[in-house]
Amino acid sequence: MLVKTTGSAIHGIDAIIITIEVNISQGKKFYLVGLPDNAVKESHHRLVAVLNNIGFKFPRRRIVINMAPADIKKEGSAYDLPIAIAILAASNQIDEDRLDEFVMMGELSLDGTIKPVKGALPMALKAKEEGFKNIVVPKENVMEAAIVDGIDVYGFHHINEVISMLSNKSEDGLVKLDAAEMLVGKHDYPFDFSEVKGQENIKRALEIAAAGGHNIIMIGPPGSGKTMLAKRLPSILPPFSIEEALETTKIHSVAGILPDDSSLVASRPYRSPHHTISDAGLVGGGTFPQPGEISLAQNGVLFLDELPEFKRTVLEVMRQPMEDRIVTISRARVTVDYPASFMLVAAMNPCPCGYYNDPERECVCSPGLVKTYLNKISGPLLDRIDLHIEVTPVPFKDLAMTPKGESSNTVRKRVILANKIQEQRFKENTRVFSNAQMSSRDIDSYCELQPDGLALLKMAMEKLNLSARAFNRIKKVARTIADLDNAKTIRNDHIAEAIQYRSLDRESWGN
Ligand SMILES: Nc1ncnc2c1ncn2[C@@H]1O[C@H](COP(=O)(O)OP(=O)(O)O)[C@@H](O)[C@H]1O
Ligand SMILES: [Mg+2]
Ligand SMILES: [Zn+2]
């Protein structure tokens, strides 16, 4: 008898539907066709053990299992469950009535326990899109899959529970969640800007970065508060929309890093990988491709602390994805794309000893050494960073006396308003969502300067020896500053402020 069940495979951050056909007839052999890798082949032995252990029989007949489409490489052992159920139905040990309404995923232990899979959320999204009424996933993954509306999501620990749900037509194991509700009130961060004393100019620069989605680098001596400031950036970012949350959650689901008890990445991610990270760890890769930190930071912040300590090659591989906001991983048999739209926040000391330009301590590095240190960060990476700011420490003796700063919520209100202006500005544009993402053509249309503004910018560029690449960066940042001011036209004071945030472009640095 021929029975069909349905499983699912992950490709990039999306799922595809895999049809599993099991045919049982006279004879003895076991065939598994459709490009399965070793783990799938091994499932034969596992399935014999599982079926015997749960009180059913592995049929001693000719069994042909076909998995389609054949051109998709089916990795791993997550097909155990749909294959086992199909074998049971094809050998008349269970009823096959409703099997066509289900997508099922799960690897089985020899005792029939269902082990977790990666990517349950995209699988549920795909199953719904393809019109399936139900999806069965491992219990550990049910919370992430259940945020999908319009499909019934069941989570089970053991194959016997699946069999009994199917035969009793019961709703045991069904989990319902409301994703929109889960985002409500989710904006609470453990760190607040008010804890950072003084540093008003740095906080202002971070506010601009948050408002326009600009990449930012902070340069300052050890202990000046760079890490402390970066940690507080998420607290002033605009709200996480349900679309963004789902997109980020999909990536975390595919990477298998969602905690068991939570289903939705409900606030913007903040990723801060250590500088010893590998290329693959940062941008993604591996034999079975996995998203890297730049994708896990989707719609949030990637903080690279001590930037010059990262291997140059690692920073180099980030360049293209930063430009495209997507990363393409190519392997012999597969090419996958992962989204990589994040805000880069970087921090570094100004020189090897750390005290170049420090008001209180003497730098012991030669000018040549300072230059070499800076050159460790590649020009093209720096080129994608709109704001450069020098952080000077608040002297220790002043820290106690300096009053508390503005709270993150107050700052965030301004960021949200500036964000709304950009939403309007780019509503017709499918690729650009923030000022930072504007192309040269967008800059021409949205960042027009008045004649005297243009003259001011040109003069500053000459006087401060700013490089040509700074020109468009300054215009974008000036646009965000004007948005924070709710000003339609970019004024001279907006430009003047934007010019201040190009420290590393000045040719005088390190001389
Ligand atoms: N402006 C400040 N307000 C309050 N505490 C500060 C400030 N600057 C530095 N600190 C204190 O100094 C510590 C070290 O700062 P940190 O962020 O690690 O510096 P950096 O990353 O620049 O080396 C912080 O954890 C904080 O306790
Ligand atoms: Mg630090
Ligand atoms: Zn130094």
Tags for this entry?
511 residues, alpha/beta, Ribosomal Protein S5, domain 2, Rossmann fold, Helicase, Ruva Protein, domain 3, 5-stranded parallel β-sheet, binds adenosine-5'-diphosphate, binds magnesium ion, binds zinc ion
Describe the structure in your own words:
- The chain has helices spanning 38-53, 80-90, 120-129, 142-145, 159-168, 179-183, 200-212, 226-232, 242-254, 279-283, 293-296, 312-324, 367-375, 379-382, 396-399, 408-425, 440-446, 451-463, 470-484, 492-499; strands at residues 2-11, 14-25, 30-33, 62-68, 102-104, 107-108, 114-115, 134-138, 152-156, 174-175, 216-219, 270-271, 284-285, 290-291, 301-304, 326-330, 335-339, 343-348, 387-390.
- With 511 residues, it is of the alpha/beta class.
- The strands form six sheets. It has a five-stranded parallel sheet with strand order 12-15-18-11-19.
- Strand 3 (30-33), helix 1 and strand 4 form a beta-alpha-beta unit.
- It is elongated, with a radius of gyration of 28 Å.
- The termini are far apart.
- It binds adenosine-5'-diphosphate (ADP), magnesium ion and zinc ion.
- The site of magnesium ion has 4 residues, from helix 8.
